[in-house]
Amino acid sequence: MKDRIRAISAFFSQKKLQGAVLLLASFYLLSALYSLYQPYTPLKKADAIVLLAGNQLWRGPAAAFLYNCGYADRVILTSDGVLGGWSTKYRKNLYQVDRAEEDLVAFGVPRENIVKLPFHKSGTFYDALAVRLYAREHGVKSMILVSSNYHLCRALWCFRRLFPKEGVELMVYSADSSPAGISASAVELCKFAAYMVMYGYRETF
């Protein structure tokens, strides 16, 4: 009887291990496929370029490139509330949004054409809420979202959730020309799933 119990226990333990391996392999494959996917929208002249907070090493130059190519006359910066490094020019630590502004100016964007949105809460969904409020108050009817390739899917999903009745045309531009890494895509998939649970079923925001 004891031998039979041990055999059954070993069988189910082996099945659990196989299931875990299969689950991890499936998630890895899904992350690899996600890393190759980027949303695409044709670009045209817009009312604003929206530079989403985070990874400004790549996103800032991409937004400046679009501005200098004439795709919009203003750049909107969202804020993640993160304090950055020391600035010798201002003799203080700059917030990332302030650092992004300085980088845009260095890349040829006039300071008067840069809009810094206030920080409320950290997260792409709250960035979209801040942009929606600005768009309503200033009559923005078209915008180009600039972000990293791995982040664009979730960003576009957030904006589409918040702008369905606003009559605002949304376009996207990836700050990275190469596919995202699998590790970054895996993390992003987890975030995307969490966003769909938290915000996917709410009707009003």
Q: What can you tell me about this protein's structure?
A:
- The structure is a single chain.
- This protein has one domain (48-199): HUPs (Rossmann fold, 3-Layer(aba) Sandwich), CATH 3.40.50.
- The chain is built from six helices and seven strands.
- Helix 4 (124-138) crosses helix 5.
- With 205 residues, the protein is α/β, with parallel strands linked by helices.
- It has helices spanning 2-36, 56-68, 96-106, 124-138, 152-162, 182-199; strands at 48-51, 75-77, 83-87, 92-95, 114-116, 142-147, 169-174.
- It has a five-stranded parallel beta sheet with strand order 5-2-1-6-7, sandwiched between helices.
Largest sheet descriptor: 5 strands, parallel
Distance between the ends: 60 Å
The fraction of residues in strands falls at 15-25%
- Please, how many helices? 6
- Strand order of the biggest β-sheet: 5-2-1-6-7
Counting DSSP E segments of at least 2 residues, the number of strands comes to 7
Shape: globular
**Count of separate structural domains:** 1
CATH topology: Rossmann fold
